[in-house]
Amino acid sequence: MSKRNILLIACLLILVALFLVLSSRQPVQKTVKLFDFDSTKVFSFSIKDQQDSVYLEKNSSSEWFVKSSFNYPADPLMIEGFFKHIIMSERNKKILSEDQKKFVFYQVTPETATTLIVYNKNHEEISKVYFGLANMSSWSSARFENTTLVYEMEENVRQFIMPSVNIWQNKSITNFKSKDIKSIKINYRTFEYSLINHTDYWDYQDSEETFKVFNYNRPLFKIINMIDNFSISSISQDHDGQYALLFEKPILKLTFLLKNGQSELFELAQLDSNLCIMRNVNKKEFVYQIHIDFINRFTKSKENFKDYSEYTY
User: Fold this and answer.
1) pLDDT tens string for the chain (313 positions)?
2) β strands within 206-249, DSSP E
3) Sign (positive/negative) of CA torsion 234, 235, 238, 243?
4) Alpha-carbon distance 107 to 87, whole Å?
5) pTM of the complete model
6) With contact defined as beta carbons under 8 Å apart, do 72 and 78 qualify?
7) Which residues touch 205 (CB under 8 Å, ≥6 apart)?
């Protein structure tokens, strides 16, 4: 064999060896997608466990609604989390078990699991999964209906697949922040005053006087903070007028005049020593529960607004 051929063979062997070495260093994919479809195929889904259930559906405008109990907008952050951590979730390639006797241990039976059913636009079932959700574990298990394969999820998906209606409902009942407000009219029992927004300060105005209130004033700061971080504890539908009597004489009325010319009017009534109920006058069918602190923030005396000491946490 000529030296030239020997040299060519040697070079070829070196290239093959180099290829094998580099290939062995490539990262091995340990996970795969749980579902074989993407988010565009999902038009509704239901979640249920042994105590609760919830059903959500997307309308023609691609807006998600909680359909359980009554039709109400879904929390966009929960929807985002559901698609990111559930529909686009990954499982370990390694199978945890194929033994039906271990279904209970991994909590993937219909009686022990949290069950997810996903539907397409024709309301046809495209997937049914039993999730075993361990409280203290960093991972979850999953099994598709009519299979014995139990998978290990890449993460614990518990918080994104809880069947509580209250968790999935949108807790934001206003679409504005304090910067969007032109003025607030406050009617508390027989007393009335207004707060007028000038960006750097607000005017306090009642039937007797008008004076400036700066943003660091404690009562004003707490009102602004409440508006910008507004949250409610629960939502109900007043379809039978059970709260009508309480709203006949509301303890507090708030009229928000916005810079875009729109206005929102809310009425509040006290439910008990810790809770009050609130409704938007234009959407009286929905009643929201909120802590009594909400009323307290709007019912400070005039002298409190004249206190110019800086608010500190």
Assistant:
1) 565 555 555 566 566 556 555 555 555 568 889 999 989 999 999 999 999 999 999 999 999 999 987 889 999 999 999 999 999 999 998 899 999 999 999 999 999 999 999 999 999 999 999 999 766 567 789 999 999 999 999 888 888 899 989 899 988 888 899 999 999 999 998 899 999 999 899 999 999 999 999 988 999 999 999 899 887 878 888 766 778 888 888 999 999 999 999 999 999 998 888 889 999 998 888 899 988 999 999 998 889 998 765 544 4
2) 210-214, 234-237
3) positive
4) 20
5) 0.76
6) no
7) 193, 194, 195, 196
